[in-house]
Amino acid sequence: MTEEKGVSHQLVLLPGDGIGPEVISAAETVMVTAREYLRREGIELSWEAKPIGGAAIEEAGKPLPDETLTAAQAAKGVLLGAVGGPKWDRLAPQERPEAGLLGLRRALSVYANLRPATLLPGLEGHSPLRPDAVAGLNVLLVRELTGGVYFGQPRGRSGEKPARSALDTMAYEEGEIRRVAHVAFRSAQRRQGRVTSVDKRNVLETSRLWREVVEEVANEYPDVKVEHQLVDAMAMLLVLRPQIFDVVLTENMFGDILSDELGGVVGSLGVMASASLADDGPGLYEPVHGSAPDIAGKDLANPLGAILSLAMLAEHSLGLPLLARAIEGAVDEVLRQGLRTQDIGGGGQGEKVIGTREMGERVAAALAQSLHSRQALNATYF
Ligand code: IPM
Ligand code: MG
User: Fold this and answer.
1) Residue 346 pLDDT
2) CATH for the stretch 1-117+267-382
3) Which atom of ligand 1 is nearest to the CA of 259?
4) In the chain, where the domains are located
5) Which bound ligand lies closest to the C-alpha atom of 286?
6) Is 260 a catalytic residue?
7) Which of 53, 69, 168, 170 has the fewest beta carbons closer than 10 A?
């Protein structure tokens, strides 16, 4: 595998709030190792950190400062920790930390959110489901990320007690559905060739359009099998028979809900990674877990979701799939060694519970070892 010499990749880190800074710092430890090996291949990796969310409200008075957005737009890829926390809960909707994240997703046009759910080695017994019900689980959730009820207008509140009312709008244009459907079908072609599209067509107009457009896109992929599920039934099927699914395609809010459910199914939201992709420009990579204010600053958070998001960044934004595989392999290796953060430490035989920072160091060490031995075998590893 050859890669052009003399390329330089600039990344932006957005640690954010709660456990965000801790998991991003652990991912940074892994990046330092990757940088050292990439340099030998003539590839420069550099990064800078910028504030977002509550941290940006404190520092710059708003959740998505211009400087953060400009840096993100100019980067190859953006790795984000988490946003939000009780401190900012009383702010008006547009001033909240979450508005920073939603504004960033929208500004980068990252409409296709890929959330893979697989069972990592050694975590089979950690799922609340029976081991035989989750063995071999490998689902890719494709969530539409820049439309639907998250962004629909009009929205707002009116009236005074006892006549208060609130309004949100769920709206989709067919182009928004079509482009994310293509991402799902193309992904399925590289996987098991099956797409399950999830909607609520028995009730919602947007869902009726969703299903129509997905059917049209499906006609362009005769090699992919498509089926449709209503979101309530899907919520049940994901805990009854999660193994039967390959690619799951759905709109923004349904995808938000089903991705947390998949986190529960694989045993912890802490290990789940995501990539949010646009047609052009940088991708945005985030662990699926939130800011978890209750454990923030205690070195308890699981950084594997952030580290696996870094692997997705290497694959999708840097065009370095072998580096992505090596990072994933390093995560598998530390889990095989029995190392666990508290959320996935079930007290099993040979398991040792370690903190966020040590987990980052262990993954980095495993990565260094695998890259070192590979390099001895093949000098053009990347
Ligand atoms: C997620 C989160 C976000 C979302 C929040 C923090 C705005 O729950 O990425 O799943 O709802 O998209
Ligand atoms: Mg969510």
Assistant:
1) 67
2) 3.40.718.10
3) 10
4) 1-117+267-382, 128-265
5) 1
6) yes
7) 168
Residue nearest to atom 7 of ligand 1 (CA): 98
Closest ligand to the CA of 102:
1
User: What's residue 377's pLDDT?
Assistant: 42
Residues of the chain with pLDDT under 70: 1-5, 346, 375-382
Is position 200 annotated as part of the catalytic site?
Answer: yes
CATH number of 128-265: 3.40.718.10
For ligand 1, what atom is nearest to the CA of residue 291?
Answer: 6
Q: Which residues line ligand 1 (CB under 6 A)?
A: 83-84, 98, 101-102, 256, 288, 290
pLDDT of amino acid 5: 57
pLDDT, tens digit, for every residue of 241-276?
999 999 999 999 999 999 999 999 998 899 999 999
Identify the H or E element spanning 106.
helix 97-107
Enclosing H/E stretch for 158 = strand 152-158
338 burial (CB, 10 Å; 0-12 / 13-18 / 19+) is middle
Q: Is 246 a catalytic residue?
A: no
- 128-265 and 1-117+267-382 share a CATH fold: yes
Q: Is 17 a catalytic residue?
A: no
Complete DSSP assignment for 318-353: S--HHHHHHHHHHHHHHHHTTEE-GGG----TT-EE
